[in-house]
Design goal:
Blueprint lengths: L6 E5 L5 E6 L2 E7 L2 E5 L6 E11 L2 E2 L6 E5 L5 E6 L4 E3 L4 E8 L5 E8 L5 E2 L5 E6 L5 E11 L10 E6 L6 E5 L4 E2 L4 E7 L5 E6 L5 E3 L3 E3 L5 E10 L10 E7 L7 E4 L10 E6 L7 E3 L7 E3 L3 E3 L22 E3 L5 E2 L4 E3 L1 E3 L3 E7 L5 E3 L3 E3 L5 E11 L8 E7 L6 E6 L3 E2 L4 E7 L3 E7 L5 E2 L4 E3 L5 E11 L8 E7 L6 E5 L4 E2 L4 E2 L1 E4 L3 E7 L5 E2 L5 E2 L5 E11 L8 E7 L20 E2 L8 E6 L2 E7 L2 E3 L7 E5 L12 E6 L5 E6 L5 E3 L2 E3 L6 E10 L10 E7 L7 E5 L2 E5 L20 E3 L4 E2 L4
Parallel strand pairs: 9-15, 17-23, 30-37, 39-45, 47-54
Antiparallel strand pairs: 1-4, 2-3, 2-5, 5-6, 5-7, 8-10, 10-13, 11-12, 11-14, 14-15, 16-18, 18-21, 19-20, 19-22, 22-23, 24-25, 25-28, 26-27, 29-32, 31-35, 33-34, 33-36, 36-37, 38-40, 40-43, 41-42, 41-44, 44-45, 46-49, 48-52, 50-51, 50-53, 53-54, 55-69, 56-57, 58-68, 59-60, 60-63, 61-62, 61-64, ...
Length: 754
């Protein structure tokens, strides 16, 4: 329940007086057939209540106890998946996260999409929710937790993501003509979505990432087909790539004469016939070295000049072959294209050959495209006007189209309590590595890579590698959750403070997924189930410590359960002679505290009565430190303390230097204390679970290197104490002896004599 003062109500006899008990302690009375009482302010956590009714001098036994939980602190929740801004191709989506509540425990996690009605997720402290968005677009999912007390988380976390199931469409914006003599081509393209990537394929090869403008070079003669497709951020791929087909014709058509005039004519006109095997060939004609002009067969030339005195013909002999020089290229490149320039020592025509293939006519610059992964060789040979062919000039280089592969070898666990994380990795080739933490820019890193000072919550590390050719591999992701919050254990059900059974079961819950250990009566802690079942308990007081260790290895403080097992039947009560002669004589005597006495007269039961038990100071025990340093300014050895309480069956809780209180015995000694001021706080806890509201605190200063003679200040006075041999006398203060006495209650039960 979400209030610290719940209303306790029930049914009783109309004339009865009802006494209400919470956790075994009376908290008030009420009257009437339908009674109710507002309980005093209760602590957070599990409680139990009961009641008795008194009518006509007789008091009933206590009703069966009812359990309830007080929880006024709202629970908290957080999401782990998906990451903010993630784009998905389709639904349904699975969201996951955790919820926690330190008091009553988590009842459920609720989620709402785009302001819709709240729906309950699967699980409690670790939850999952399958969500099918009805449409594409950006979605925001709100999360809130509800605890067992009915408290609802206020402004909880949210997860934002996008749904995109539509593939992009790709179109050409620039392509080569359907027929071209060029061995190279350039393309431009676009898509109907922004932020997409493109992939290109040439002549049916595998699609590879590309950018526009996209160029291909060194194409062979014949038909070619280029395709391009786009891929959006959600991974949707254009299923109908844009396609363009064209033909490359790099061979000049051959021309031949079909008719020519004689070598020597006297006519000023001449007729020439010519043709070509290529039916689509066009012709150009030149007379006497003039410019070539379009012409057709037959070609009739007229008004030719007649030279009566033929000129002398001179002929030059050239036996020197041209030398070709190729411009250098990087020995290693990640590009499937290459462009080469080259020169010759004299005017020449050139023939190129790639990777030992057939030679083709070329001229600088030569552009090659669609090169495969691996080594390549280009040779260029020059031929001068005299027909002299020079040696081939070689050029060697390697195309590396495969990015390096980075493999994670070791990484931090999925849940870690350490503010430091480390990732080790290997790369399948020499490369430079880069790391990014939680979306920050990539920075150079080596294996192992370590991050320190991490904050609470989920973290993502991305690692990638780039080789010498400029290829960068896709990032490899490592995710983990930084968790330094200690798990808390809350007891749900426990045996009553005084139990007649030698068996006991304690049910508890933790604030997050965890493993549990239990320690009974000071035994070493061992793994246990929930609830742990304890059998064959010896009579007397028992102490159970239930601890939790979460997925990150955080060990929380133990939950403490105390009770007393008493399976021995009480002794018969002692009776006093009836001294009254009236018809309703008082019958009285004492019996074992905490028992119910049934009175018989002449063999017939005439009434029952509860025998009360109380202890001096049972509600608030007082704690006293019996021995140990007294506000000592300087202590040169390890101190030891003993302490006591005003209740004989009380236990103790201790804290050193403001650490959380933990169970301790009636004495505590310290070893290897550092040089510093220290403080010990001790408080007593009664058998009923009531704690000393004002713990006793003792302070001192430890200095192992101090001189043998030390100054002590006790309550404003001081004295010098020393020892020649360096020994330090033990100083202690003996507190007054404390005694807690159980008292028997003599309760009178007046009955009507038969």
């Amino acid at each position: 329940m979400a209030t610290s003062r719940p209303v306790l109500a029930g049914q009783a006899l109309p004339e009865a007086t009802v006494t209400l008990f919470v956790d075994g302690i009376a908290v008030g009375t009420s009257t009437g057939a339908a009674f109710s009482l507002v309980a005093p302010a209760l602590t957070e956590g599990a409680h139990r209540w009961t009641a008795t009714q008194a009518n006509n001098g007789a008091t009933s036994s206590r009703a069966t106890e009812e359990a309830f939980t007080v929880g006024t602190v709202a629970p908290t929740s957080r999401t782990h998946a998906p990451s903010p801004g993630t784009v998905f191709r389709a639904s349904p989506m699975t969201l996951s996260g955790t919820a926690s509540d330190a008091t009553s425990g988590v009842a459920r996690a609720e989620l709402s999409g785009q302001g819709s009605a709240w729906q309950v997720a699967q699980g409690t402290t670790a939850w999952r929710w399958n969500f099918s968005p009805p449409s594409e677009g950006t979605w925001r999912i709100a999360v809130r937790a509800v605890d067992l007390a009915g408290d609802v988380e206020g402004a909880g976390p949210s997860a934002t993501f996008a749904i995109d199931a539509i593939s992009p469409e790709t179109t050409w914006t620039d392509t080569p003509p359907a027929n071209t003599p060029s061995a190279s081509a350039s393309f431009a393209f676009t898509a109907n979505e922004s932020g997409v990537g493109f992939e290109c394929s040439m002549d049916g090869t595998t699609f590879l990432p590309c950018t526009f403008p996209w160029g291909v070079y060194g194409l062979s003669g014949g038909a070619h087909v280029a395709e391009v497709r786009s891929r959006d951020a959600a991974g949707n791929v254009d299923s109908t790539p844009a396609r363009h087909a064209w033909r490359v014709d790099t061979e000049a058509p051959a021309a031949h004469w079909t008719s020519t005039p004689p070598a020597l004519i006297s006519s000023p006109s001449a007729t020439f016939g010519f043709g070509s095997p290529d039916p689509e060939a066009l012709f150009k004609c030149s007379l006497d070295g003039a410019a070539c002009l379009p012409c057709s067969s037959p070609r009739v030339l007229g008004a030719l000049h007649v030279d009566p005195t033929p000129a002398r013909v001179e002929k030059r002999v050239d036996t020197q072959a041209p030398t070709v020089t190729i411009q250098s290229l990087p020995a290693l490149t990640a590009s499937p294209t290459a462009e080469f320039g080259f020169t010759a020592s004299e005017p020449a025509t050139f023939a190129c050959a790639l990777d030992g293939g057939p030679a083709f006519t070329c001229s600088p610059p030569v552009r090659l495209g669609g090169l495969s992964h691996g080594p390549h060789a280009l040779s260029v040979r020059g031929v001068d006007a005299a027909g002299n062919g020079g040696p081939a000039a070689p050029l060697l280089w390697t195309v590396d189209l495969q990015p390096p592969e980075l493999t994670i070898t070791t990484a931090s666990p999925a849940f870690s309590a350490s503010p430091t994380a480390m990732v080790s990795f290997t790369v399948n080739e020499p490369a430079e590595s880069g790391c990014s933490l939680d979306g920050r820019p990539f920075a150079p890193c080596t294996s192992p890579s370590t991050w320190t000072g991490l904050l609470e919550g989920a973290h993502v590390a991305e690692l990638r590698a780039g080789d010498a050719a400029g290829n960068t591999g896709p990032p490899t992701r490592v995710t983990w959750t930084q968790d330094t919050v200690l798990p808390t254990v809350t007891v749900i059900t426990a045996p009553p403070p005084l139990s007649p059974s030698t068996r006991a079961a304690v049910a508890f819950q933790t604030s997050e997924p965890a493993t549990h250990t239990c320690s009974l009566d000071g035994a070493p802690a061992a793994p246990c189930t929930n609830p742990p079942l304890m059998e064959g308990l010896a009579p007397g007081a028992h102490l159970l410590l239930a601890s939790a260790v979460d997925l990150a290895g955080n060990a929380g403080l133990p939950a403490v359960v105390r009770w007393t097992a008493d399976a021995t039947a009480p002794a018969a009560p002692e009776l006093l002679p009836v001294s009254s002669t009236v018809n309703m004589p008082p019958i009285e005597r004492s019996a074992e505290p905490g028992t119910r006495v049934t009175v018989f007269v002449d063999g017939q039961p005439v009434g029952e009565v509860e025998v009360a038990v109380w202890e001096v100071g049972a509600r608030e025990p007082d704690t006293t430190i019996l021995s140990g340093p007294l506000e000592v300014e300087l202590v040169g050895e390890d101190p030891a303390f003993t302490f006591a309480a005003t209740l004989p069956d009380a236990s103790f809780e201790c804290s050193l230097d403001a650490a959380p209180l933990q169970p301790c015995a009636g004495q505590w000694a310290f070893r290897s204390m550092p040089t510093a001021s220290h403080a010990l706080a001790v408080r007593a806890v009664s058998r009923a679970g009531v704690v000393d509201p004002t713990p006793t605190v003792r302070t001192w200063i430890t200095d192992p290197d101090a001189l043998p003679t030390r100054k002590i200040r006790v309550k404003g006075s001081s004295c010098g104490c020393g020892a020649a041999d360096g020994a330090w006398p033990w100083w202690g203060l003996l507190a007054p002896a404390l005694a807690a006495k159980k008292k028997r209650a003599v309760t009178r039960n007046r009955t009507t004599a038969p």
